[in-house]
């Protein structure tokens, strides 16, 4: 990072002074450096940048050699039509510490010809996704002379083992994560779900976590074609976020870039009504920094601009629109923390130290306000609230424990009247049930304390002992006349009774229709008569595993990764500004 910072500063001085290092007197016949003039330039720039002349001399030579090689490649392309593409290699997929590789190829050839030993996907840095098996030529996919392509080592099942350019085997990561799904498999799963908006097919509205709504929570009425594209984009985005949580940023980036393609199929009016598009841009740039892909500077800067514009449209200039709709802005502020942090990083890499420091100052103010206090978190969790609820509640209420407890409870008590809620909570709390469980039970029972008590008792038995009998009674208490919800919930959670219970509680006693296997009366799409789930059903269940059941999941950042990046930038800035 420090090397890129110095190189950017030197390039700005060269541009300002209109100096061309590949020409005399800085380059002599035979392409040798003009030592006297190079040394004089290094000393002058060293004074301006307050750095040792020897360090500046090394940077100048790197820039000079790069310029000469670029000129040679331009000449080769003009004379032979052989273009040079730059491959940015994965950190763990190259030897000799080489982070980039230059290959010569004809642009009328296909990607399969270019990839050679490479099995991973190749992503063009302007982020046109290259299709290895499409048969399209490289120039038809946007590749030109001097194009940069990032080699992403995809370890998902179905992609096959990835190998580095020298043929060294890299199957370990693939084998250890063979249970994960490839981009194509994820894409197909959400394609099946997106078709549920067509006439005669189950409505998408019966799958609540795939419902498209504005900032007020109102479902958006949009044409089916756009809705399909949006569902695909949102689904791939969620899969990418799930992979980011597992620190598998190569795989995540593939899914995020596919999501970006589908978002581009949606109208600008639609994208302006939801913040998903902005969050996606932020996640893509976060993957860049996690992969140390600093060559993505130009693309990253543009994506951060798109993210900031999206947040301003959705939330308002001073987040006043968000405040009017939700009553607070604390939870969404983590998005701005990441935004300013990445802007600080890119500013530093681009040689703008003061801009980087200004952005970092904003980040540290936000971090101080948003970093959860351990004692306050504990106080809320003792009351029965989850870690996620405690963290988001404290941020929304600016660290006030009492206000946070009230906010979390009120969010769970939507269907209960104030009188029923207060009395019911008191009765259930006296019986020893946690505040969150009591509020949830009252909601499920429409405020009826007796039924809520029954639900709470059964839920406790299920959670404590994974009691199948209690689970069955619990499902009946949630009004399941067809008797299909227990089997469907258990099938979706792999037989885990506790997770099945949570799934039903989160979805008002019903398994989302997209994940419900067909009944005997319903036609099956399976070609088998053995009674097993159809391939389509299995595929849908797979992709739904990574869909969070809570709409604020994308805001629930622990800020641990952010703190690490803050410290890294602070260290580099301190050294740079000390010169």
TrEMBL record:
Q: Where is the composition biased (Low complexity)?
A: 510-536
- CDD domains, sorted: UBA1_NUB1_like
Q: Where is the composition biased (Polar residues)?
A: 161-177
* Origin superkingdom: Eukaryota
Region called Disordered, residue ranges: 158-186, 510-537
UniProt xrefs under Pfam families:
UBA
What is the protein's name according to its record?
Answer: Negative regulator of ubiquitin like proteins 1
* Naturally occurring in which organism (per UniProt): Hippocampus comes
Q: What is the lineage of its organism?
A: Eukaryota, Metazoa, Chordata, Craniata, Vertebrata
């Amino acid at each position: 990072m420090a090397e890129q910072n110095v190189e950017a500063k030197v390039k700005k001085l060269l541009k300002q002074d209109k100096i061309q290092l590949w020409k005399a007197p800085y380059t002599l016949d035979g392409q040798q450096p003009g030592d006297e003039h190079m040394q004089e330039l290094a000393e002058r720039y060293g004074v301006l940048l307050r750095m040792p002349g020897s360090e500046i001399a090394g940077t100048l030579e790197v820039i000079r050699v790069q310029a000469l090689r670029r000129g040679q490649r331009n000449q080769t392309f003009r004379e032979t039509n052989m273009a040079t593409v730059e491959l940015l290699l994965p950190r763990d997929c190259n030897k000799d510490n080489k982070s980039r590789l230059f290959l010569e190829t004809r642009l009328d050839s296909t990607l399969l010809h270019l990839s050679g030993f490479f099995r991973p996907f190749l992503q063009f840095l302007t982020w046109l996704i290259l299709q290895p098996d499409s048969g399209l030529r490289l120039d038809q996919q946007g590749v030109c002379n001097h194009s940069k392509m990032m080699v992403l080592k995809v370890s998902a099942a179905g992609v096959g083992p990835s190998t580095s350019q020298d043929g060294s085997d890299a199957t370990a990561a693939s084998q250890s994560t063979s249970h994960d799904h490839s981009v194509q498999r994820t894409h197909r799963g959400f394609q099946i779900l997106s078709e549920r908006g067509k006439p005669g097919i189950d409505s998408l509205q019966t799958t609540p976590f795939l419902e498209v709504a504005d900032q007020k929570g109102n479902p958006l009425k949009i044409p089916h074609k756009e809705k399909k594209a949006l569902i695909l984009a949102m689904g791939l985005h969620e899969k990418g976020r799930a992979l980011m949580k597992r620190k598998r940023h190569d795989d995540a980036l593939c899914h995020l870039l596919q999501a970006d393609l589908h978002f581009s199929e949606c109208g600008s009016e639609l994208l302006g009504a939801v913040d998903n598009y902005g969050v996606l841009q932020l996640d893509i740039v976060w993957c860049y920094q996690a992969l140390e892909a600093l060559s993505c500077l130009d693309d990253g800067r543009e994506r951060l601009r798109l993210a900031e514009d999206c947040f301003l449209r959705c939330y308002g200039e001073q987040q006043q629109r968000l405040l009017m709709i939700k009553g607070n802005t604390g939870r969404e502020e983590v998005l701005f923390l990441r935004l300013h942090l990445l802007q600080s990083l890119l500013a530093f890499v681009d040689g703008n130290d003061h801009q980087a420091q200004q952005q970092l100052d904003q980040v540290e103010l936000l971090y101080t306000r948003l970093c959860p206090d351990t004692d306050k978190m504990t106080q809320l969790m003792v009351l029965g609230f989850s870690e996620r609820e405690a963290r988001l509640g404290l941020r929304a209420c600016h660290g006030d424990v009492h206000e946070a407890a009230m906010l979390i409870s009120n969010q769970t008590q939507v269907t209960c009247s104030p009188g029923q809620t207060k009395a019911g909570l008191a009765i259930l709390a006296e019986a020893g049930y946690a505040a969150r469980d009591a509020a949830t039970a009252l909601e499920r029972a429409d405020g009826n304390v007796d039924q809520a008590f029954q639900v709470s008792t059964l839920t406790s038995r299920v959670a404590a002992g994974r009691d199948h009998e209690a689970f069955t009674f619990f499902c009946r208490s949630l009004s399941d006349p067809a008797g299909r919800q227990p089997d469907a919930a258990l099938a979706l959670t792999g037989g885990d009774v506790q997770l099945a219970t949570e799934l039903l509680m989160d979805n008002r006693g019903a398994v989302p229709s997209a994940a419900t296997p067909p009944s005997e009366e319903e036609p099956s799409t399976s070609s088998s008569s053995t009674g097993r789930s159809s391939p389509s059903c299995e595929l849908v269940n797979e992709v739904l595993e990574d869909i969070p059941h809570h709409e604020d999941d994308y805001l629930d950042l622990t800020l641990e990764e952010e703190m690490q990046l803050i410290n890294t930038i602070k260290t580099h800035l301190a050294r740079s500004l000390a010169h």
